[in-house]
């Protein structure tokens, strides 16, 4: 017995999938999972305060494309992954973590213009609150980006990457080893935001999943029949 996780990307098509794993003894086990579609929550952001994100200039479009090209390989699926150095449930990204906004996967418009789905969970936390690594790992990127603002990406092994966006500042750099609960920066409102908050994102084997699943004790997760 035990809990086995299989990350399902927020954009995975509905249907029945056969998944498999190999036990420590080398035995192949399979299971069936059914993926169903949940209509995405609609968020219409009106009178967006930072106008450079409403009508994005050619210069900023080029900048964002360049940054996306850097991020893509970092968060995408990799066939060979380093062993896990994290444990579950993962640690909280801030000491007193409030309830999230419930906007993971939200479909968004910005002053009426459609935007990409929201890839993380936003937490209402004030500017200056220390941000903590959710697990042991290695910083793969700490940079100032157009959309994500000051952003930190941490690789926790086994294909798990955590993302912390819109920070006021960060205190880690690429290739640095971090431990669970280590301070990596402080909450801010940089990048495309309407106000201060922490955006936490998680990629696991390339799948964009709700970080909430990893923050709860496995025994609190709904029983799968
Ligand atoms: Zn967000």
What does this structure look like?
By secondary structure, the protein is mainly beta. The protein has one domain (41-220): Distorted Sandwich (Glucose Permease (Domain IIA)). It contains 2 helices and 14 strands. The strands form 3 sheets. Strands 6, 7, 8, 9, 10, 11, 12, 13 and 14 form a 9-stranded antiparallel sheet that branches. The chain has a 3-stranded mixed sheet with strand order 3-4-5, with no helix packed on it. The mean pLDDT is 94. The site of zinc ion has 4 residues, from strand 6.
Could you write a compact summary of the structure shown?
With 225 residues, the chain is mainly beta.
Helix-strand blueprint:
Elements: E1 15-22, E2 28-35, E3 42-45, H1 58-75, E4 107-110, E5 113-115, E6 120-123, E7 130-132, E8 137-145, E9 149-155, E10 160-170, E11 177-178, E12 183-187, E13 198-204, E14 207-209, H2 212-215
Parallel strand pairs: 3-4
Antiparallel strand pairs: 1-2, 4-5, 6-13, 7-12, 8-9, 8-11, 9-10, 10-12, 10-13, 13-14
The protein binds zinc ion (ZN).
CATH superfamily membership: Glucose Permease (Domain IIA)
Strand percentage, roughly? 25-35%
Query: Level of helix content?
Result: under 10%
Put simply, the count of helices is 2
CATH class: Mainly Beta
Distance between the termini: 14 Å
Q: Fill in the CATH topology.
A: Glucose Permease (Domain IIA)
Task: Record keyword descriptors for this entry.
binds zinc ion; nine-stranded antiparallel β-sheet; three-stranded mixed β-sheet; 225 residues; globular; single chain; Glucose Permease (Domain IIA); mainly beta
């Amino acid at each position: 017995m035990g809990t086995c996780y299989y990350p399902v990307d927020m954009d995975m098509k509905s249907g029945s999938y056969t998944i498999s794993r190999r036990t420590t003894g080398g035995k192949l086990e399979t299971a069936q999972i059914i993926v169903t579609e949940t209509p995405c929550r609609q968020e219409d952001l009106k009178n967006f305060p930072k106008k450079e994100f409403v009508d994005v200039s050619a210069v900023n479009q080029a900048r964002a494309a360049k940054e996306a090209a850097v991020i893509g390989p970092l968060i995408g699926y990799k066939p060979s992954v380093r062993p896990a150095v994290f444990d579950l449930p993962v640690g909280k990204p801030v000491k007193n973590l409030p309830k999230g906004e419930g906007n993971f996967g939200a479909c968004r418009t910005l002053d009426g213009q459609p935007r990409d789905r929201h890839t993380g969970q936003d937490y209402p936390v004030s500017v200056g609150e220390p941000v903590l690594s959710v697990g042991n790992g290695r910083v793969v990127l700490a940079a100032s980006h157009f959309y994500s603002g000051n952003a930190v990406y941490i690789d926790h092994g086994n294909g798990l990457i955590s993302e912390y966006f819109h920070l006021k500042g960060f205190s880690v750099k690429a290739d640095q080893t971090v431990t669970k609960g280590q301070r990596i920066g402080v909450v801010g409102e940089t990048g495309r935001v309407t106000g201060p908050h922490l955006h936490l994102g998680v990629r696991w084997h390339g799948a964009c999943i709700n970080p909430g699943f990893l923050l709860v004790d496995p025994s609190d997760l709904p029983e799968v029949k």
